[in-house]
Design brief:
This protein is an alpha+beta fold. Strands 4, 5, 6, 7, 8, 9, 10 and 11 form an eight-stranded mixed β-sheet that branches. A seven-stranded mixed β-sheet has the order 12-18-17-16-13-14-15, with helices on both faces. It has a three-stranded antiparallel β-sheet with strand order 1-2-3. The longest helix has 19 residues, at 291-309. It is globular and about 70 Å long.
Length: 566
């Protein structure tokens, strides 16, 4: 491990507390400073400065890498965000009755303060949504070794027994999933009313976050099926009958390590059977929770919930903005759709740009090249999920009557800062395009990041259609201005000449992309093929009419048909 850095005083500042916890988690994971540096793409000296409390990670992307490398389940991100804020003092347990403070503050603060405690644990006051003040018991050693917060339990002024964490999470579900996916939050409802866990899926740059209710039960694998054993039929039937988004999770013990399989609550309703005196629910093993299925759950839930929430207002706004279709050029700000959430703005911009391109495409004087601005899975998953995107791709292919090219700019820094499930979503979006004969091309040069989305007939005419990372909901135009056409023509030709995924076949291009995104090729083919055989709707069903699983299923089917490595 090497010599420890100078002794920290975690109660001195949030910066020192962050350094303390990084060091404790690194050593608990059995990593040296150099090994952590390699995992986070920084120097050994930078890791040393983090742990000394001299200089914390510089930005959100860097602390996300550290959090993911140490399996901290988002806690390091919260501690990092506490830097520069005032942090109230925790309530330490004494022999007398604990004092319940009326102050409510972030869990990250409580966890960071725990690191400074000399005792086995402390109580921290927390105000619930209904105004009730309770105490959270935090165990210092369990926190620093697990890094997932499962050692915290809401109690009513009594210390948590040593066995409480195990009793509350008998399948090790919460610890496992929060360690795998930074930002995922789980909580135990009290009273539980038939729900084992509430899961808060994180948002993103535009996504707003989504909530799921879960029941977790023991399960066994029989061939390609998972049989979930449900001890209380009435409890599960009531859970599945509710209109909220829910998941039924089966936990399979494989030599002391649990594997988890998820089934959408609505899909599970029709799968309840009785085997003797035992109630069972069957799901395919293809629905195992991993980066592929978690990514789909994350993206579909986020988009679906946000679009459903604004459904009527969005439909009215789309009708109000229809007049812009008569113009060849328009730039519409988000203020034109007041009150709509950011995902609804995304959908409006994407839908308008797609229809703008389809109107202009037949009049272009030459076979065009396309340029798209998506860089992360959050943006790219719109190709898989928005109801108009897959039909738009098919229609553009039909109008052109031949293959086309579509260029992307994805710098290495974007890849490094994106979690694997987001990189998988980006890969699937590109695979969907390749399945339709669209040749995807890529540059890593950040100089092209600011280029707007366009369709250019080289040296002749261009269609501008941009809704991704723009100043407003959309910017569209049809222009023959020589300066604009020249800029787009040069950009398209540069990427065509130097694409880092260049290959004569779709499989070759996708294999090169998987390598760049650090995704295992054979695993992608195997898992996508498994999911394609059953479809994604049993895993996560959409509620909004503006969301479709057709793009997801088509992309998975295509990837599953590609040749794998042997």
């Amino acid at each position: 491990m090497g010599q420890r850095p100078n002794v920290l005083t975690p109660d001195q500042s949030p910066q020192h507390r962050l350094g303390y916890v990084i060091r404790e988690l690194r050593e608990a994971r059995g990593l040296s400073m150099r090994e952590l540096a390699a995992k986070t793409f920084v120097s050994h000296s930078k890791v040393q400065r983090w742990e000394n409390g001299d200089r914390p990670p510089k930005d959100l992307g860097e602390i996300e890498l550290v959090d993911r490398a140490l399996g901290a389940g988002g806690f390091l991100i919260e501690l990092w965000q506490e830097i520069g804020r005032g942090t109230p003092e925790p309530v330490h347990v004494s022999d007398g009755a604990p004092h319940v403070s009326d102050t409510s503050f972030g869990l990250a603060t409580a966890l960071s303060q725990t690191a400074a405690s000399d005792g086995e644990g402390i109580f921290v006051p927390r105000r619930l949504d209904d105004g009730t003040v309770v105490l959270v018991a935090l165990d210092r050693r369990a926190l620093l070794r697990a890094g997932a917060g499962i050692s915290a339990a809401v109690v009513a002024g009594f210390p948590m027994p040593a066995s409480a964490a195990v009793a509350d999470d008998p399948f090790d579900f919460a610890r496992s999933v929060t360690a795998n996916w930074s930002g995922l939050r789980l909580s135990r409802p009290a009273p539980e009313f038939g729900v084992d866990w509430h899961a808060l899926l994180p948002g993103g740059r535009s996504m707003l976050g989504s909530q799921l209710s879960l029941q977790v039960h023991p399960a066994r694998v029989e061939g390609s099926r998972v049989i979930v054993s449900v001890p209380e039929q009435q409890r599960v039937e009531e859970f599945l009958a509710r209109p909220h988004r829910g998941l039924l999770v089966g936990a399979v013990d494989t030599g002391g390590v649990a594997r988890f399989y998820a089934l959408d609550a609505r899909a599970a309703r029709a799968k309840i059977t009785r085997n003797g005196g035992v109630c069972e629910v069957t799901a395919p093993t293809a629905y195992e929770l991993d980066d592929l299925t978690y990514g789909l759950l994350w993206a579909v839930s986020n988009y679906d919930d946000a679009l459903q929430a604004d459904d009527q207002a969005l439909a009215e706004t789309r009708s109000d903005l229809k007049a812009y279709e008569r113009l060849s050029a328009s730039a519409v700000s988000r203020e034109a759709a007041p009150g709509l959430n950011t995902v609804a703005h995304m959908w409006l911009g994407s839908d308008f740009c797609a229809r703008h391109i389809l109107r202009a495409l037949p009049d272009l004087p030459a076979l065009p090249a396309f340029w798209t601005r998506e860089q992360r899975g959050e943006e790219a998953s719109a190709w898989l999920i928005f109801d108009h995107k897959f039909p738009y791709l098919r229609e553009t292919t039909k109008v052109l009557g031949s293959t086309s090219t579509r260029a992307f700019c994805i710098p290495e820094g974007i890849v490094r800062s994106s979690p694997r499930y987001e990189r998988i979503l980006l890969f699937l979006a590109v695979a969907l395009m390749e399945s339709l004969g669209i040749h995807a091309q890529f540059t890593a040069d950040p100089a092209y990041e600011a280029v707007e989305g366009f369709v250019v007939a080289p040296d002749k005419e261009a269609v501008i259609a941009n809704w991704v990372r723009g100043d407003g909901m959309w910017h569209v135009d049809v222009t023959a201005r020589s300066s604009v056409v020249r800029e787009f023509t040069i950009a398209a030709r540069d990427v065509n000449a130097d694409s880092f995924t260049a290959a004569p076949t779709p499989a070759g291009r996708l294999r090169a992309l998987a390598h760049y995104l650090d995704l295992p090729w054979s695993w992608l083919i195997e898992r996508c093929g498994q999911l394609a055989r059953y479809g994604s709707s049993g895993l996560v069903q959409s509620r909004s009419r503006l969301v479709s699983a057709a793009g997801i299923d088509a992309a998975c089917a295509y990837v599953g048909s590609l040749p794998s490595d042997h």
